[in-house]
Request: fold
Amino acid sequence: MTLELQKPRPIWQIMFSTHHTDVGLLYLISSLTFLFLGGSLALGIRAELFLPGSQIIADSMTFNRIFTVHGTTLIFLFIIPFASAVGNYYVPIMVRYKDMAYPKLNAIAFWMIPPAGVLIWLGFADFTWYATPPYSIISAPGPAADMWIFGLKILGISSVLGALNFVVTILKCKHPDMSIGQIPLLAWSFLSSSLIIIVAIPTFAAALLMLLTDRLGVSGFFNPAMGGDPISYAHLFWFTFHPEVYVLVIPAIGMMYEIIPRFSRKPIYSYNSGIFAFVMLSIVGFSSWAHHMYATGMSFTEKTVFMVGTLAAVPASAMHVFNFVATMWNARIRFSTPMMWAVGGIALFFSAGAGGVVNSAMPLDFTTHDTYWVVGHFHLFVMGTIAFGSIGFLYYMFPYVTGRMYNETLGKNSLCLVFHRNCSSILYTTRTWLVWNATKNLRLSANSRMDCYESNSLYWCNDHWYQYGCILSKHDSQCWKRQTCRHRRSIWSWRQILLSI
Amino acid sequence: MSGHSNWPEWIYVAVVIALMAWVGAEAWEAERLVEHVPADAKTIIATGQQWFWTFEHEDGTKEIGELHVEVGKAYKFEVVSTDVNHSFNIHDYVVLIDAIPGRVNTVWFAPDKVGEHDIQCREYCGLIHYNMRGTLYVTEPTS
Reply:
């Protein structure tokens, strides 16, 4: 293990190295850079939405581009590379091998990320992170969309190469005296998430190629004007990206499995159930993709099948939470910074999962679909669970990487800041939705910078940041109250529809 | 590899599975009823395009950006799109279905009170998506 600050080396020695800790360090640096970049876009979005009307972003197209790149950056250029950083550092050590199985392939997989990031950032596409056709084919402007497609293509190849490397390292290069049932749960998490990547990503890679040729006009897979079907893109996309959710979350849970027993000063409550839950998640992750598509006009049978597939993921996730809580039960816990991040992450994981049950229930999904509720739900996962696990692990691995200890007070302060930000922004977003059911269209509202009085709708009025803004600027911050009664009943109005039959 | 017995976890998992089965069954039952379109529902063709809604009633009258319906009657929307994906949404009545070019999706509702409600597009469809909206007027029956 290299101790970077104790024995400093010139940067090119790290850049041209293929050693797993050096590649891991490069992954770490690039993913944290993109965390800051993507996070600054989020700050821009929030600052823009502080008040109705246009504040700092020139026009709605720029705004659409910003939230597209925000999502793409944080998912593909922060979360996945961060997991690779941790995996590169620890997986070879945990399976007791000198390096990754294919060190050069490992370095190649990393060096695909910066050009892809440059393509995405210079392109600045506007079609949201799922690039729905036919908008992305016939309407999305200019080279931006093509650059996004190429960027994602490169990132997909990079993920698959990295995943192959992890699978071979864990299965073939582990110490012969150690069975697969003895490797740490962190390594298990990389094994399962890598297998998901290998199965899921090629589908999206195919869809991207089809999207590109559609854009060039030589094919019409998703273009209805040429006999294609836009819904088939949605199926291909979500077949990759619902399992991809588990690719994102499983390594973060693995990191918590490393942190929680260490700071609880106890072994993990049940190693076997941890493995079982990882394997279950990797399997049921493939049975639920079309729950993103209830509103596309699916038949009742299809919806039922995917609802059952979605609900099947809940027990496996619940087993992880149980494992964490049971490990901490009666333990002499040391609340150091990594432990606090991990515990916060578990709490938010629970809220995210509980909220997800609402989305999976068919009738309720028709009220939450495409609203703030769903934004709150998946940000509780990606920001709440995954980023909390990752940042906690960043503190955890800091002494390993640098040879120095981080400042405990600063670490805890950073947690308090982020946890408050997280709870206030995300939980309030979800909670306000629940209480006032002011669920106007997320994407509509995200784009809506019109005055709420003019448009006579809630959009952002229920957002607490918006209310702060109103108070500061002496706007009528209570405008949502007038609307409350009308909106409150609508969550249950499907029941009223039933009564009217 | 912990040597102790693990029964609390399995009991917990069984409880979670039972809870999910209950949620699923309730949702299945509700959705089954909601999907059942009444036989006397009047058909309205709702067409989405960048960036407005057009409604065509059974008698051939067309409305743009506005929709007038009568209280107490059931209406079935046939939602289509002429360019990109949109999503037809009357949030107050939980009417939501995507408008996909090349497809006809149906959704129905029966307004139970006189009033005005927002109609909006709920699927990102480009530059002026945020303003792709209309108004639903629920009125007393004329005859």
User: Anything to note?
Assistant: Residues 42-139 of chain B form a domain with the Immunoglobulin-like fold (CATH 2.60.40.420). The longest strand of chain B covers residues 42-49.
